[in-house]
């Protein structure tokens, strides 16, 4: 068994977000699969066209999920089918949430759902570097304290394992046309990244 001490250090760093991500869903219930899929397809095309008209580029739009499933209702009633199409939208303009939401609601009406909104940092590499450095400093300080208590001196590092966490600002909503007749203004807060290091120091 290796001698030494194993400690855990963590470092958390925050930064201003630079990207807005919104996830819209288009859903429709119909008595048959073909009608459900066709309606969702038409409404999805309308939503995408509305978003494009508001300056969203092709590269900023993407499908994240398409689902069709049988919807069981009360016993004795006809079985229906639920179709859905989930669209992810990205924008560098953090103030556009209300405008994009209203455009999507106008396009899809009550077939629209808002599955999530998130402010994030596109490139977290610098924040991760800073958080990693803080985590290692904390781990070393802990190890030095424990070594002193035990009457040892620290030697070299023999093992490191890393875990990363991200804490972007996130909101979830259920949308209807009446609920979003006017623009909604949201204010982004800082996004954070956290790195946790498990470090094993050998005794000198």
TrEMBL record:
InterPro entries: 26kDa_periplasmic_antigen (IPR052022), SIMPL/DUF541 (IPR007497). It comes from the Bacteria. Pfam families: SIMPL. GO terms for biological process: DNA damage response. This is Secreted protein.
């Amino acid at each position: 068994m290796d001698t030494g001490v194993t400690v855990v250090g963590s470092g958390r760093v925050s930064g201003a977000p630079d990207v807005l991500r919104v996830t819209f869903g288009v859903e429709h219930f119909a008595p048959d699969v073909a009608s459900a899929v066709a309606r969702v397809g038409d409404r999805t095309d309308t939503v995408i066209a509305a978003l494009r008209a508001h300056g969203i580029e092709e590269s900023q739009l993407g499908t994240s999920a398409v689902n069709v499933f049988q919807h069981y209702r009360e016993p004795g009633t006809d079985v229906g089918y639920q179709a859905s199409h989930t669209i992810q939208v990205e924008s560098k303009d953090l103030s556009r949430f209300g405008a994009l939401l209203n455009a999507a609601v106008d396009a899809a009406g009550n077939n629209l759902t808002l599955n999530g909104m998130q402010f994030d940092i596109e490139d977290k590499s610098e924040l991760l570097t800073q958080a990693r450095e803080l985590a290692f400093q904390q781990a070393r300080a802990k190890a030095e304290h424990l070594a002193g208590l035990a009457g040892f001196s620290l030697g070299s590092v023999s093992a490191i394992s890393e875990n990363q966490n991200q804490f972007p600002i996130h909101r979830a909503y259920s949308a209807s046309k009446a609920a979003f007749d006017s623009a909604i203004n949201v204010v982004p807060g800082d996004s954070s990244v956290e790195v946790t290091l498990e470090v094993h120091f050998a005794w000198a």
